[in-house]
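Researcher: Going back to the complex we discussed earlier. I've cleaned up the inputs and rechecked each line, so this should be the final set. Can you rerun the prediction on the complete assembly and write out the structure?
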Amino acid sequence: MPYCYEYPHPAVTTDVAVFTLRQQQLQLLLVRRGEDPYRGMWALPGGFLEIDEDLESCAKRELKEETGVSDLYIEQLFTFGRPDRDPRERIISVTYFALVPSNKLEIRAGSDAADAAWHSLNTLPELAFDHAEIIQQAQERLAAKTLYSTIAFQLLPPTFTLSELQSVYEILRNETLDKRNFRKWILSLNLLTETGEKRMSGNHRPAKIYQATNPDHVEIIR
Amino acid sequence: MPYCYEYPHPAVTTDVAVFTLRQQQLQLLLVRRGEDPYRGMWALPGGFLEIDEDLESCAKRELKEETGVSDLYIEQLFTFGRPDRDPRERIISVTYFALVPSNKLEIRAGSDAADAAWHSLNTLPELAFDHAEIIQQAQERLAAKTLYSTIAFQLLPPTFTLSELQSVYEILRNETLDKRNFRKWILSLNLLTETGEKRMSGNHRPAKIYQATNPDHVEIIR
DNA sequence: GCAAAAGTGTTACGCGTACACCCATGG
DNA sequence: CCATGGGTGTACGCGTAACACTTTTGC
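Model: Rerun complete. Updated structure for the full complex:
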């Protein structure tokens, strides 16, 4: 036990709630735990902070190691630290909230986790630790930010049609939207650029393809 | 050094940015550091997490110990963890954002801090660690929540006049508001109850005294 | 009666909402 | 020519914003 301190120190981990859209549903990335405690149960991807590593770097590294997912929108969510939240020792978990676009949601299970898979939010398995609570808060954050920011764009590939964008909003807000009103509103924000291309997909009129003018920036609107 | 671990552990602290209204200004509570590093410089009240203590309890305890301030509105702000943010060792700081009403802002310096004092936000001294950045984010949180919640009530005593409440909003939003529109809006939210009392303060018509119907609950509005 | 803050209504404008039909393509 | 999703304009109502005078008190 070579690392010694004058006062007790908690361990620090990061955990990430990654959402994507698959099969017209909002889905969440979970890993099956390969080690105790909670071996065999599903949990958020995450792990221990290295001593010289930034918090956000840790979240991204663990995510990539365990699931192969990288290059995504990520923001800090909340820090959980109930003294009894982990049976091993006192652990503070700095949690993150992330979104991946549907064009790069291939996952591959990594070494630390026996398995990684997308789960529909309404059929989540039982979760390890306090991860159900973390997911709850992440969902609330996503719902709130959908209303006042352009975070929804982070769930789409770099180019998309207005119908695809509308579909994202409909899934996130869980309601159908009027096509004309949606287009009027989204175009009035001046955040979209026409690529000039059209997408022909099936036996109907082709759709104009748009891209976010500033794809990496989540704007605050309203 | 009796506390030993197999892997290195960072230390965890909490720091709190407490705001109040004094002299018609938004002010922030700082303590002068009595120990190295940054001895003699101003910093946010805060300190090390005890191993069996909840994060929010730690923030409240340190605040009370160092400044005597207790019984306030407090919420988690952000967790700061740049590897080099503290010269002693790796320290993760879970920061909190708090508001105290103007009727209980008496402070007394505690044992850990040589001195505690309120500072105007536009004349802040140089700050220890990355505390300037923390304060920046706390101010942004306050400004944002002013617009969509009833957080402003937390800066007033339990009873107040509508003019006093309007003044809080004017200071927080840094603009003057129309008296009739403000009253119409705030009353339409149905969050206020008339006490039936009136406040006579000077040579003019006395003002009706109101209280928040649900004083401890910060409502999300809009 | 004068100074000083409390209290009170009406109008105008813009934004969000509701709503139905034609267009381009593939088969 | 038919099925499918893409694309377009107008009218109404509500909520926000602008705006000035009367009331009550202390001195």
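Model: Worth noting: The mean pLDDT of chain B is 95.
Researcher: Good, that matches what I expected from the previous run.
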